[in-house]
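wait is this the right file?? whatever heres the structure
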């Protein structure tokens, strides 16, 4: 079943209501079920009140849903029978459906999840000795048109709803065999799958609240990372709303090259982006921003470029994560050599910037950074690069 962007209310086949219930009295529409998955605590409490129940029921519901991994109202044994019946009638806990799963030789697992009959998105689980990272999607496709990213080639279909974003973590826990009271399996969540999370701000922020909420997935703010291609104004908004780790896709030390690789740079150039990043860290009392830098052979990997990146970032709360380029069919880019990547990292370190190289995982199932493509049909192929060019040409015409 499909959901519109931002909707948590979906039309369902609710049993006809015999007598006016307290929910109707509270003005909730009949014949619809509210998807409680992804409702932040305050909204869930308001929903319980609207059903004529006590707001503290929200705590119990969240406990069942997120702590115990239970998504059937009838199994929530400490809720009154009548309340469970009312919930079954008026609400649902609807998860995205798993279409398929692939396992890589290094233990990485990738799932294709359905957004509706035609569209699908992906999530990836990356096990390591000391943590388990789930990489989740925020949109079906992406509109930002980064030159080296496979998702960009797909175009954009729609934003994921909060339930679809939260549902990824819920499903991964279930698929990975999480037991109530047992050890965490998903210890870290990164919004680095398909899509630009800050372009879906409205649905992403409530999902982040549930990741951090101690009645939700109860992850520490350092273990939830939002990665953005650089929507500077939204970084300021994010700083007001919530405190999570921030990663920013830098990929070039100068505006000319960055505008080619990451077209959003034409709207929000490097200086503006960095201002937003330092503001974020100030506001959040955070440690540092991680700057992602994809290593493209002969494009952005020279020693001069490494020194230029160091000059931009040294003295600021920044670290750099170098990502060896992951190829996909049809790309014109090549991965930098190991020597070039090592040298680039050394020059950053020498220039006073903390730098690491991201280990590539899940390559044999196309689960590595920038390789997630899901299934995006019926897309509005909004290519940001061409849109920006069109706007410029128009503006130039007006000015001439
Ligand atoms: N839209 C977000 C999340 C993207 S995925 C963003 O732009 O930050 C996470 C990282 O992988 C980003 O830094 C992205 O630029 C990078 N990436 C995209 N395609 C890649 C590829 N083919 N190889 C390596 N990294 C890639």
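ok assuming it is, sequence goes like this
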């Amino acid at each position: 079943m499909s959901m519109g962007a931002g909707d948590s209310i979906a039309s369902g086949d609710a049993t006809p209501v015999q007598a006016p219930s307290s929910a109707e009295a509270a003005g909730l529409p009949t014949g619809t079920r509210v998807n409680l998955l992804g409702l932040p605590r305050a909204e869930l409490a308001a929903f319980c009140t609207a059903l004529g129940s006590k707001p503290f029921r929200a705590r119990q519901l969240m406990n069942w849903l997120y702590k115990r991994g239970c998504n059937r109202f009838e199994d929530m044994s400490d809720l009154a029978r009548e309340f469970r019946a009312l919930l079954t009638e008026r609400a649902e806990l609807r998860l995205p459906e798993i279409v398929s799963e692939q396992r890589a030789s290094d233990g990485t697992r990738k799932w294709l999840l359905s957004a509706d009959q035609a569209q699908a998105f992906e999530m990836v689980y990356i096990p390591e000795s000391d943590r388990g990272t789930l990489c989740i999607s925020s949109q079906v496709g992406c509109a930002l048109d980064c030159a080296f990213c496979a998702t960009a080639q797909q175009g954009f279909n729609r934003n994921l709803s909060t339930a679809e974003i939260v549902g990824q973590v819920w499903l991964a826990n279930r698929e990975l065999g999480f037991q109530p009271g047992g050890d965490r399996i998903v210890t870290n969540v990164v919004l680095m799958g398909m899509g630009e999370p800050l372009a879906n701000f409205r649905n992403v922020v409530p999902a982040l609240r549930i990741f951090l909420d101690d009645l939700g997935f109860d992850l520490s703010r350092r273990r939830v990372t939002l990665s953005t291609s650089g929507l500077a104004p939204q970084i300021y908004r994010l700083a007001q709303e919530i405190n999570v780790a921030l990663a920013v896709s830098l990929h070039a030390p100068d505006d000319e090259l960055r505008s080619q690789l990451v077209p959003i740079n034409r709207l929000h150039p490097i200086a503006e982006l960095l201002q937003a990043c330092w503001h974020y860290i100030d506001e959040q009392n955070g440690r540092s921003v991680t700057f992602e830098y994809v290593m493209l052979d002969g494009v952005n990997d020279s020693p001069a470029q490494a020194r230029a990146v160091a000059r931009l970032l040294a003295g600021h709360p920044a670290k750099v994560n170098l990502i060896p380029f992951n190829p996909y069919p049809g790309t014109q880019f090549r991965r930098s050599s190991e020597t070039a990547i090592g040298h680039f990292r050394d020059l950053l370190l020498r220039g006073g910037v903390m730098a690491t190289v991201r280990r590539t995982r899940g390559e044999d199932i196309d689960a590595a950074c920038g390789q997630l493509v899901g299934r995006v049909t019926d897309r509005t192929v909004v290519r940001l690069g061409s849109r920006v060019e069109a706007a410029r040409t128009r503006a130039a015409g007006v000015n001439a």
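Residues 1-23 have pLDDT under 50 and may be disordered. so i think its the right one actually
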